[in-house]
Amino acid sequence: MKxxxxxxxxxxxxxxxxxxxxxxxxxxNHWAGDAVDRIADxxxxxxxxxGTFRGNEAFTRYQAALVVSRLLDVLxxxxxxxxxxxxxxxxxxxxxxxxLASDVAAQGVRLSSAExxxxxxxDEVAANTARLDELxxxxxxxxxxxxxxxxxxxxxxxxxxxxxxxxxxxxxxAAARADEAYSLANQANSLSRQNAEEIAALNRMAQLLSGRxxxxxxxxxxxGAPVVSGDSAALADAIExxxxxxxxxxxxxxxxxxxxxxxxxxxxxxxxxxxxxxAAIAALEDRVTALEENPLGITGSITVxxxxxxVLGDPFDIDRVYGLNNERDMGRxxxxxxxxxxxxxxxxxxxxxxxxxxxxxxxxxxxxxxxDASATLNLSFGAGSTFNGVGSPNALNNFSAVLVIDIxxxxxxxxxQQIVFEIDKFTTTFSPIGAAPLTFQFGTDVDVxxxxxxVGTSEADTDYPGxxxxxxxxxxxxFIDPTVTAFYTAPTNPALDDGTYRRGVRATIxxxxxxxxxxxxxxxxxxxxxxxxxxxDNDQITVWGIDGQVSLSVFDxxxxxxxxxxGPISDESVLYATLDVDVAGAGIPILSxxxxxxxxxxxxxxxxxxxxxxxxxxxxxxxxxxxxxxxAGLSLFILDLExxxxxxxxxAGDQVTAFGVDASADLFAGFSxxxxxxxxxxxxxxxxxxDSPYDANEALVTANSVERDNNNYxxxxxxxxxxxxxxxxxxxxxxxxxxxxxxxxxxFSRSLLEVSADMDLTVSIVTITPYVSYTMDNDSDVGxxxxxxxKVGAGISTEPLNVYLQPSLIGAVNYRTTDYNDAADxxxxxxxxxxxxxxxxxILDHSTLTAKYGSWTGTNVNGxxxxxxxxxxxxDISGPDQDGTGTQSTSGYEVIWNYYDLxxxxxxxxxxxxxVLSSAQAFxxxxxxDLD
Length: 932
What we know:
Elements: H1 2-13, H2 33-41, H3 61-77, H4 87-105, H5 108-141, H6 147-184, H7 189-221, H8 229-293, E1 298-312, E2 341-342, E3 357-358, E4 369-381, E5 398-410, E6 418-433, E7 436-443, E8 466-472, E9 483-489, E10 501-512, E11 515-526, E12 539-552, E13 555-565, E14 572-581, H9 583-586, E15 591-601, E16 625-636, E17 639-649, E18 655-666, E19 671-682, E20 685-687, E21 716-723, E22 735-744, E23 750-759, E24 761-763, E25 766-779, E26 785-798, E27 807-822, E28 826-839, E29 847-859, E30 887-899, E31 902-913, E32 916-930
Helix pairs in contact: 1-2, 4-8, 5-6, 5-7, 6-8, 7-8
């Protein structure tokens, strides 16, 4: 390989032969002709379209790139064997490079000598220039010289001066290149020796030039006598020879620089190749190590759980003892049954308590069981198989699969448990089949979704056995980027009759940048478990529609139209469109946002089942409304405004209109000022709220339900002052303050005052998060539920102590008192406190032990049960307070030991619901292992 590089470099960069070139414009016996022929034979330089070489033209960067590219092609053709280097070859190459570096380092002295020689050459050229100046002066004093001869001699001397100036410039350039050559010499041992010989030749050339100039000076010294034509010719020949020698000097310096640059590039390429080979070997070693650890290529997780629960009395919730329904909490119990989501608004009804967010504190947790075991395997089998597909247009190249397996132990009402083994989901991707990837998903619970109003598999307590197939990225149709999705499912929702199935197909295209158009067709059949509907009881509905998204300039448009037929009530349709304007991109002053919508959503779209499983939360608008809305934002210096207008009608004939403005302004020191004005009207009459349509005289405008989309438009105005403790210019870092006052309802009879403060305070290893809030809600109307409420509490946590077992503490305390008067006259209270000790280094490494105790007591809080789902026995303390429910209390403890992913937990709790006692005890083992 080294010989190859030397040969190529010699062919490209240097040649001493003088032969006729294959290019017609290169003179015969030109000094570079042989080198040109060599690089032409190698295909590195092929000349211009007219067959010429044009050796005197400037060499552009584009031409340089083309020549270098062809040179690399020649090198690559001879380096295939080198690409298969073994580790031993690489080590040999590294040793050779180190030896080269050592040899090159030894050339430093020679290069220093070369620099001195070039400097001497520059000095000699300068001296020659001075001597020429003197000659010109003496010629000016030689009055008896033939004028014609004198002029000719002066012209020749002027040309000689130009040549010497050129030599001076070339010598300076040579000195600069010599400086560069010194750094490159670390990679150029053999070439440095050649450079030394060439520099010696340059010195000899300089000596020859000096001698010739001495002869010229002697001839001119005799200029005082008449000069004959023969002497002038001799002098002219001497000057021409000097010019030729200087030109040769320039060519030698250029060749030297080219050789050094080429060698630098060659060494850099060798180093890059060495680095690539090292990286490839390291990657191969990593792959071998991974294969040794997991030879089957299995990834995923395995979860195993064992649970024993004992309950005396009714089941109850235990999350509340750790403050889960308050401002500060210690998280859920390890035995928590989970949570649901509720929507609500604290201003929507009297005696209202927060019903937004997780309500795990309203679900019972521990249930009676003698020991349930379950295991879940979630495995991914990475497999790559290659098939040459000879003779087949559908060659299968590779695939990957994901398999989810459930193993459940079920009591079944007998002493003998049943073990159920089922494939929950199997997903595989084949690529390519035909001209596009085809993705399949099938199993006992597949996922598919078409649009916000058509087809979904997100309904609670429902499984969807079936399959989904998706075809996308069709090469020959890439200009419209089509996708096609087809599915078939048989929902197992107990609310649906046996024999129910759903099927459908959806296609999308993107014919232009920012434009996506789609179309859907789906069907659902019930009582379809008999072939050919021999019982004549099949109920089938059909839904089809179109939708799209268009981004054009600063406009973003989204729309959907769908129609359903065959339902038990009537045909229905949905239509909506939303338009948003990128006001920043449009350069519209003052405006910060602008949007509009139109919708016409049938009232029985979901009742008829036309949604085909699409979740209501995914829909941008609720059912039973036809109308439009607009919204806009404005920025005026420090003032930000948000305005909206909405108008819609419902099927019963009622018309709702709402509008409002919200304002906020950043002041100073983290403070901001806010305000709002909202008005809601039903059938042209201003009402309190659209879900409570009472007018200013407390008369009910309509008995129909007119609230839509959880907007709950209301009438009122108010102001607020806020301090953000996280703001960069906060007056007190970490301190959050908020005070607001508002007048609500159609007659503005309801006043609401809210003041709150909270803070994160860290002292040494202790972090305390106190809070306090006060609310006063008064309504002058008779029969209203006025109340005042005070909340106070704090959370606490510490960093692990750097002592044995590394203990840390956690805790939470919350207190609430709410006084109701007017229509209801009672007081509701809550007190919760909990504390926990965590041993972060419990005897073994990666072992933690957590012990926590909690207590909750409530008086006149919501005592309703069984509202979060069938069979739930916990009281719904997140709901409105209720007079006369007495006192509830729950307390208990649990201990959890974690060792890596293995968890042991034990807990004991007691519950007293106004004298009705219950107790529970639980033990669980859980283990999760990741196979990644």
